[in-house]
Amino acid sequence: MTNKHGRYWALAAASVAVVVFGSAQSTGALWRDEQIVAGGTINSGTLDIKVGPNGAEVNDYVLAALGAADLGPNGFSQAPLSIRNSGNVPFNFRLQGTTATGTVPLVLTATTVAAEENCPAAGAPTGPTTQLYTGNASGAQAPVPPAARLLAVGAREVWCFRLAVGADPPQSASSTVTFSFRADQT
After folding, report:
1. CB 52: neighbour CB atoms within 10 A?
2. pLDDT in tens, 53-71
3. Is 5 helix (H, G, I), strand (E, B) or coil?
């Protein structure tokens, strides 16, 4: 009788081995795929946005001209910022956001102008202009998302930034505004 039971155990073990082997084969097929793709070209490039004075643009720039001491009621400070595509691929860019720190509430106006001299320290921007944003200096985005501005290789655009205080600004207070730009390859 032990011989008979030995055969049953051997048969049962062989059946389990076949089931395990068969199940491993079928799951392996679920993780495999092939696809033939027609030939194509992959191009690489350099996306590089620079800001600062025309001809001297850098990655990080302190716009020192956009500031003033002792701004009175309804006072403002205004300065141009040149934005240049110094890479070798065109890109879409935008003012992604602003951060304002301090206690002086500021209103930001961002306008494109033809050249830096069209954004005087006093008075309104001159020449052909396009206003991109006006509102609270904190959290500003221009143009309104998801829109962006196209900048060709080697091209530049000048933005005129104006920061204004209200009719009753706090005394002996200050604020700092940081602008962050985003560029995406087209």
Report:
1. 17
2. 877 888 888 888 898 888 8
3. helix
**Of 107, 156, 102, which Cα lies nearest the Cα of 133?**
107
CA dihedral sign of residues 92, 131, 118, 58: negative
**Which pTM value belongs to this model?**
0.75
Range of weakest confidence among 20-34, 139-153, 167-181: 20-34
User: Are 91 and 149 a contacting pair, CB within 8 Å?
Assistant: no
Give the contacts of 142 (CB within 8 A, at least 6 positions apart).
94, 95, 110, 132, 133
pLDDT (tens digit, 9 = 90+) per residue, 81-126? Answer: 999 999 999 999 999 999 999 999 999 999 999 999 999 999 999 9
- Residue percentage of the chain with pLDDT more than 90: 53
Helix H or strand E encompassing 29: helix 2-30
- Helix, coil or strand: residue 18: helix
What are the CA-CA distances from residue 99 to residues 42, 96, 162, 184 (Å)?
38, 10, 15, 21
- Picking from 58, 57, 147, 23, the residue whose alpha carbon sits closest to that of residue 95 is 147
| Residue 12 CB burial class (10 angstroms; 0-12, 13-18, ≥19) | exposed
Beta bridge partners of 98: 179
